[in-house]
């Protein structure tokens, strides 16, 4: 908050500073939208595979608001990152787990393609926002496919890449540990 006040005061002296503030706001909104699209991909893939989806969390800080949609709680928080919680049940298989793990990236890539071509890439009048969206999506895809654990709410959760690694190394679907 103090940073925004500082930028607003600075913009009285140098008006071009507001462009930087506007750029930061647009970048933040794109990143949040990017995370939402990614988690929506996991949600849709999980539903397609027949998994009951308990919870979808967008963000990693204090909760802004929540909604129950089709029996799933969607929680929207400050910050970036997201989690989609499933109940694996008895229908688990390597293929089903793999589709769920890659659902975020697959859906995100589809949305990137649609937005990329819809917004007129290649036009000399409209290249900045689609390019920014592509870079943010590429960054999210790379980070989510990097195999690592991350801590959220005091627990360890696998990234999409680590989940895929566990799926490939598991002898049975029960060894995956969803």
Structure description:
Helix 2 packs across helix 4. With 178 residues, the chain is of the alpha+beta class. The model has no long low-confidence stretch (mean pLDDT 81). It has a four-stranded mixed sheet with strand order 2-3-1-4, covered by helices on one side. The chain starts with a helix and ends in a 9-residue tail after the last helix. It has helices spanning 2-13, 17-48, 94-118, 128-145, 160-169; strands at residues 53-58, 63-69, 72-77, 82-86, 149-152, 155-158.
Radius of gyration: 19 Å
Described by the principal axes of the CA atoms, the overall outline is globular
Instruction: Report the order of strands and helices.
Output: HHEEEEHHEEH
| Beta-strand percent range | 15-25%
Largest sheet: 4 strands, mixed
- Report the span from N to C terminus: 38 Å
Spans where pLDDT lies below 50 across 5 or more residues: none
Helix content: 40-55%
- Strand ordering within the main sheet: 2-3-1-4
Please, how many helices? 5
- The tally of beta strands, per DSSP, is 6
Structural class: alpha+beta
The overall average pLDDT, rounded, is 81
Characteristic key phrases:
alpha+beta, 178 residues, 54% helix
Topology:
Layout: H1 2-13, H2 17-48, E1 53-58, E2 63-69, E3 72-77, E4 82-86, H3 94-118, H4 128-145, E5 149-152, E6 155-158, H5 160-169
Parallel strand pairs: 1-3
Antiparallel strand pairs: 1-4, 2-3, 5-6
Helix pairs in contact: 2-3, 2-4, 3-4, 3-5
Give a concise summary.
With 178 residues, the protein is α+β, with helices and mostly antiparallel strands. 54% of the residues lie in helices and 18% in strands.
């Amino acid at each position: 908050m103090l940073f925004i006040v500082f930028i607003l005061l600075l913009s009285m002296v140098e008006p071009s500073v507001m462009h930087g503030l506007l750029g930061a706001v647009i970048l933040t909104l794109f990143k949040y939208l990017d995370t939402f699209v990614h988690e929506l991909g996991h949600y849709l893939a999980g539903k397609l595979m027949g998994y009951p989806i308990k919870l979808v969390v967008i963000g990693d800080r204090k909760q802004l608001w929540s909604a129950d949609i089709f029996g799933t709680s969607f929680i929207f928080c400050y910050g970036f990152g997201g989690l989609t919680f499933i109940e694996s049940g008895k229908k688990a298989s390597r293929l089903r787990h793999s589709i769920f793990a890659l659902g975020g990236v697959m859906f995100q890539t589809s949305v990137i393609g649609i937005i990329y071509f819809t917004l007129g890439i290649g036009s000399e009048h409209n290249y900045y926002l689609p390019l920014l969206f592509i870079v943010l999506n590429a960054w999210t895809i790379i980070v989510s496919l990097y195999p690592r654990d991350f801590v959220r709410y005091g627990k360890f959760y696998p990234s999409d890449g680590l989940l895929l690694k566990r799926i490939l190394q598991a002898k049975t679907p029960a060894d995956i540990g969803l």
